[in-house]
């Protein structure tokens, strides 16, 4: 049996202007061995990931701090992806109206696979989170 796979950790830091204020957004993906194992299309096991999203105001004070797991998106996933998929990524897309829009994905942990469910995560100016399936991914 092959050893348990893992996706690489990453950190992305960006600044964004939203409603006339500047925010720093830090996204960090990391393996969490306490989560249920994910599987690729061949049945190979991988550790799943957590992704922290931290948003700070221009003066450095925290505005938003949440660590996401695949479970945060499960109601938007087909059963097979909810069971076997991994949390692949969350990246800042853009400031849009009064919220920050992030692109997220859950799917096969195999880095050569293109099997995933695209999601939109919106963080409102009050820190509320909404999630939806991205039906407009080509645009």
How would you sum up the global shape? Answer: elongated
Residue share in helix = under 10%
Summed up, the helix count is 1
* Terminal Cα span: 41 Å
**Strand order of the main beta sheet, please?**
1-2-5-6
Mean pLDDT: 94
User: Could you tell me the strand content as a percent range?
Assistant: over 45%
Count of DSSP strands: 10
Rounded to an integer in angstroms, the radius of gyration calculated over CA atoms is 16 Å
What does the oligomeric state look like here? Answer: single chain
Q: How would you describe this structure to a colleague?
A:
- By secondary structure, this protein is mostly beta strands.
- A hairpin with a 2-residue loop joins strand 7 (86-96) and strand 8.
- It contains one helix and ten strands.
- The radius of gyration is 16 Å and the shape is elongated.
- The termini are far apart.
- The strands form three sheets. It has a four-stranded antiparallel sheet, with no helix packed on it. A four-stranded antiparallel sheet has the order 7-8-9-10.
């Amino acid at each position: 049996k092959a050893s348990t796979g893992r996706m690489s950790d990453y950190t992305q830091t960006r600044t964004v202007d939203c409603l006339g204020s500047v925010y720093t957004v830090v996204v960090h993906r990391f393996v969490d061995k306490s989560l249920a194992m994910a599987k690729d299309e061949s049945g190979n096991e991988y550790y799943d990931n957590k992704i922290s999203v931290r948003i700070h105001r221009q003066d450095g004070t925290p505005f938003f701090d949440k660590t996401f797991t695949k479970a945060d998106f499960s109601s938007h996933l087909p059963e097979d992806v909810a069971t076997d998929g991994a949390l692949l990524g969350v990246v800042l897309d853009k400031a849009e109206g009064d919220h920050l829009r992030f692109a997220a994905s859950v799917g096969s942990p195999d880095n050569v696979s293109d099997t995933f469910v695209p999601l939109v995560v919106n963080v409102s100016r009050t820190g509320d989170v909404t999630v939806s399936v991205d039906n407009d991914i080509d645009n």
